[in-house]
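Worked example
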Amino acid sequence: TQSRSSAASDVYKRQVAGQVPNTDTADIHTQTKEVLDNIDTMLAKANSDKSRLLTAQIFIKDLADFEVVNSLWGDWLADCPKPTRATVKAELVNPLWKLEIVVVAAQNTID
């Protein structure tokens, strides 16, 4: 059997660079869904998935959009452990982006 300490050494972390929406002119609902889809894609490429998220940082342009983002985030993670999360109001590089999300997830192997 594998010891607890050696099992822990087989887990690696992968940071997914800030994911932004594909459609600059879309509303907050669409932009959020696009960003979450992008995260799913990037995590799959990193041999991970949203069930292995450790932490997330959500940068949101307008806090009036928080409830929509929070609802979609909760739906996206409905069957998954919830990672630690910070949500920050921020001016984003592209003024048409309404949010950007950065996540760190565990993976079982190194690419």
